[in-house]
Design brief:
The protein is an alpha+beta fold. The chain folds into two domains: 53 residues; 81 residues, no CATH class. It contains six helices and five strands. It has a five-stranded antiparallel β-sheet with strand order 3-4-2-1-5, sandwiched between helices. β1 and β2 form a beta hairpin.
Length: 157
């Protein structure tokens, strides 16, 4: 498979190339899911490489690659008992015994998806314009899913 980030030496260049590749290859714009998953994998590896081998600010910026908004959204709910928190694509979904925590979840910026019977959060600008007709299982299958548990380090590309 093609190395999408070959020859790029700075975090800024890697991020710019990633954004360009997402616009061309994301499944929502007609791209291939397998290709997008490979781009995400290679992006993560490229950022990790910069974090280990970069210099000064580059190294520090790569080490802080999990955006603060994701970290805050996860931290607000990950330790609540009985909830399943997972990253699906670039969205965070919460299922399980959410009723007793509904006010806490809502205060953390999550929204309720009644047809999916789940709470969701996404970064600003990553909304869905298609009306959400897919089931959560179909969304997981299309974008992949990763459970997030308390005390576990995670990376979001």
């Amino acid at each position: 498979m093609k190395n999408f980030f070959e020859g790029l030496k700075t975090l800024a260049d890697i991020k710019a190339e990633y954004k360009r590749l997402v616009k061309l290859n994301h499944p929502d714009v007609g791209g291939d899911t397998a290709t997008m998953q490979e781009i995400n994998r290679q992006y993560s590896e490229a950022v990790d490489w910069i974090a280990r081998h970069g210099e000064g600010r580059e190294k520090a910026a790569a080490a802080a690659e999990v955006p603060e908004e994701y970290a805050a959204a996860v931290a607000a709910v990950v330790n609540l008992a009985g909830l399943d928190v997972e990253l699906v694509g670039s969205w965070i979904w919460i299922t399980g015994n959410t009723y007793i925590y509904r006010e806490t979840i809502k205060a953390a910026g999550y929204k309720w998806a009644s047809k999916k019977r789940a709470w969701y959060w996404h970064p600003e600008g990553a909304g869905c314009s298609r009306g959400g007709k897919k089931s959560l299982a179909e969304i997981r299958e299309k974008y992949g899913s990763e459970k997030i548990s308390s005390g576990r380090a995670y990376a979001i590309a």
